[in-house]
């Protein structure tokens, strides 16, 4: 499946009142008015047929039941999202490597039965949409044979949690390799990246604890913080000054109603933010963590493998001692071409997590072939395959990312994110331009993700570029030509002057 700014890099669009915000708001206003008229006419004509029967209709709530979906979400899906659904959740029929085969879909049926259906055809496209940072997502001469060998030896699944019979020799080897690579004493692996956060934060935190979370942290962190039952305070995105203000006030006030000191305080941030492409100011955050005696939880899902001279993430990128970060979290789905995630920390913390984590006790452990992929890709990155391919991949990723970002900015596009980051959101703003970008790029053989509400705020729609080490300079130049043509037709660069 093709999965559908930084203040230091040209300004944060969330703080802007100019640019594309006001024209986009007017465009949405027009769409909302016509959507309201459409629903009103349908209600009058069929008395609830097409519009779903009034308030809450069409959201799953029958007579006497609360609606499953809010009125606004239902309205948005029917009148806005439903019109451009072909731009999202595009299925593919190949490995998400340098190129992908995107399945062709067309609208079929009438009325409520109308929907997108596959035609059986595919479109071969340059892949600028997958988190394939180091190019391990497709077949690899070193990794693939080792995955097949693990499949023959261990099968598709352990069919058991790791605490029971799901811990094989491969799992132990992977955990040791991850701990060594991340510069920590020990590590544990999880079968699902999202569950790594949601299963870990509730074990580390609870009532009487405080989680201080970045405003743009991933949904998995938000869900884990809610499940923990700890008090959550939010600080402005990548703003150490506001983080310190929140910490000082929280420590001075103590726990709500009781005014007792917090048992523990966790600062939770990400390495690279997937919708912004910018990097957390780790040095400043570590300094605040030490100053206020807090713990630091760093989600490196997008930065491990992509940042640092040897791909070891943000600590290496900023020259920070990994031991100054109490919990290092990451996933294997982006840079390493596998699935699942990991937690790296002290030996005592990992032993505690293995004992208490629901992932260890209840969830099936990571599939052996996927574990073999993790081991093999780490060996390549660490140079233990007997070659320099790993270092070449890391250098190529950085060169590709900085080259592409520089060219996009030279075109006049509003590009978010920081130097060296392989994620490059291009601001679109306007609801009518979002489907134009998604459709026109695919028509010209380039697969680009377009992102709108609810994944982003309503007025901050964007296209998100993901660069890979497997892209050649010719690939990038071709993509730039396509984006230049799309910019000419959709006038993306005009948003900055609008």
What does the model show?
- This protein has 498 residues and is an alpha/beta fold.
- Among the domains are: 21-83, no CATH class; 143-381, Type I PLP-dependent aspartate aminotransferase-like (Major domain) (Aspartate Aminotransferase, domain 2).
- Helices cover 38% and strands 15% of the residues.
- The protein is built from 15 helices and 13 strands.
- It has helices at residues 21-46, 71-79, 143-154, 169-182, 193-204, 219-228, 240-253, 282-291, 314-318, 347-356, 358-361, 368-381, 389-410, 433-443, 473-490; strands at 99-108, 115-127, 186-190, 210-214, 231-235, 265-270, 295-299, 327-331, 341-345, 423-429, 446-447, 449-451, 461-466.
- The longest helix is centred in the first third of the chain and has 26 residues, at 21-46.
- It is globular.
Structural class per helix/strand content? alpha/beta
**What is the percentage of strand-forming residues?**
15-25%
- Provide a count of the helices: 15
Q: Judging by the overall fold, what is the CATH architecture of the domain at 143-381?
A: 3-Layer(aba) Sandwich
Widest β-sheet, arrangement of strands: 3-9-8-7-6-4-5
Poorly predicted segments: 1-11, 14-19, 48-57
CATH first level of the domain at 143-381: which class? Alpha Beta
Helix residue percentage: 25-40%
Mean pLDDT: 89
- The end-to-end span amounts to 35 Å
DSSP, total strands: 13
Q: CATH superfamily of the domain at 143-381, please?
A: Type I PLP-dependent aspartate aminotransferase-like (Major domain)
CATH topology of the domain at 143-381: Aspartate Aminotransferase, domain 2
- SSE pattern, N- to C-terminal: HHEEHHEHEHEHEHEHEEHHHHEHEEEH
- How large, in whole angstroms, is the Cα Rg? 24 Å
Shape: globular
Largest sheet: 7 strands, mixed
